Amino acid sequence: MTRNFTAGALAAMLAGAAVAAAPDAPRFAPTDCPASVADIADCHAARDGNGAWLLVAMPREWNRRLLVHAHGGPRLGAPKDGDSAEDLDRYSVMVRDGYAWIGSTYRRGGYGVRSAAADVEESRRLFVERWGRPERTVLHGQSWGGNVAAKTAELHALDLDGRASYDAVLTTNGVLTGGTRAYGFRADLRAVYQYYCRNHPAPGEPQYPLWQGLPAGSKLDRGELRRRVDACTGVDTAPGKRTPAQAARLADILAVTGVAERQLVAHLAWGTFHFRDLVHRRLHDRNPFDNTGTVYRGSRDDEALNAGIERFAADPDAVATLAYDADLSGLIVLPTLAIHAAHDPVVSSQALAAYRATVEAAGRGHLLAQAKTDEHEHSRLRDATYRGALRALEAWLDTGLRPDAAALQATCAAAPGDPADCRFLPP
Predict the structure, then answer these.
(1) Which of 192, 186, 194 is nearest to 279 (CA)?
(2) Which residues of the chain have pLDDT under 70?
(3) Contact, 401 vs 367, CB < 8 A?
(4) What local confidence, expressed as pLDDT, does residue 24 receive?
């Protein structure tokens, strides 16, 4: 058995009374738990030395396991106390199954995978400082948090003595393609949308390259963006009440980009407000997106679309900076289980194949297990999915046998709950 599978046993030997906190360590204070766990856990909040807010849920019947959570987004506002309560509520099944849970808001809003990864690791370290080393520690990330968790596992899996800080990694609906490949479809969407709608930016407004998302000082908000999208496409209007022109524009935009109708505004918002944060605040006003060679297909008139759409070329330094921050090397050292909803409307399940190729190219394929589930949501999977995944990870750590989709399905069906909620599929 490799060192990865003995880390839990070593942690169990070391687990015990909480380590005495350093004099300048954050003080965890009692706080209200979300209703979903209030009857079985006690919650504690603190702020770390970098300004990130931490939330801990400690089950009253703790199984001596810790779940370290990396949240998605990224959220663009300044972090606040209580921001992680929604995350805890969303993944409360983990706490109800006996896992302690800690989540960090990260030190700042906006993009930054390495920064967020450092904050995730700091949350784990501070938990250990306050409550002692758990018998096992699982790192979990969903959506953009999957990118953060995977980066955390590459940068912070081992301490300076080579001992594992985590025992396993779980990603769910994770952005595992890395930053340089994850968002180009939204840049394409901005260009396609503007070709048909001409209102983002509108003719009377300052014009700017679409890859910027917005000019740095723009006052446009999400409400106004939604109003413009509806005015052009009728996306918030019942299909039978859309004008023929609206229906035609909407059909072309969706056909060319592959974006689902119900996610159109959300993807445009990401390609607006997150792009502004990424470009102006993280990439020094440089462009990481390129559509110079893209051939757009699926519209009523592809020739006119390709002739008239805005084109932009990526700045190599911007691509390099984004790659350094958010791309993945595949050099994992911990058992890693990646689960993805087959019908995820936000992050394509093709991310599984991309990540497997990265990990296998690094020679670490034996440490990666993957499966899809027959689900249609992005931000939250079924409780049975999380429960089954965690139990399969525990079995992998106990036996050294990497689970496949059939093993995940069987483990899930044997857990408490309705077996019909278990919907694991091969990747």
Answers:
(1) 186
(2) 1-24
(3) no
(4) 65
Cβ(135)–Cβ(8) below 8 Å: yes
Query: Would you say 330 and 365 are in contact if contact means Cβ atoms under 8 Å apart?
Result: no
Tens of pLDDT along 104-162?
999 999 999 999 999 999 999 999 999 999 999 999 999 999 999 999 999 999 999 99
Q: What pLDDT is stored for residue 261 in this prediction? A: 96
User: Domain extents for the chain?
Assistant: 3-178+329-425, 181-323
Q: Please state the CATH superfamily assignment of the domain spanning residues 3-178+329-425 in this structure.
A: Alpha/Beta hydrolase fold, catalytic domain (3.40.50.1820)
Q: What residue has token string 């995730």?
A: 120
Question: d(Cα 181, Cα 288) in Å, to the nearest integer?
Answer: 10
Structure tokens at 295: 């051939």
Does residue 227 sit in helix, strand or coil? helix
Chain centre distance of CA 46 = 23
Which residue is it, tokens 């093993």? 407
Number of H helices, E strands in the chain: 17, 10
Angle between helices 113-131 and 144-156 (to 10 degrees): 70
b/e string for 240-268 if b means 16 or more Cβ within 10 A?
A: eebeeebbebbebbbebbebeeeebbbbb
- Show the CA angle centred on residue 60, arms to residues 58 and 61, nearest 5°: 110
Distances (CA, A) of 175 to 142, 147, 197: 8, 5, 29
Amino acid at site 340: H
Burial class of residue 388, CB neighbours in 10 A (0-12, 13-18, 19+): buried
Q: Which has the closest alpha carbon to 172: 383, 406, 7?
A: 383
Greatest alpha-carbon span in the chain: 70
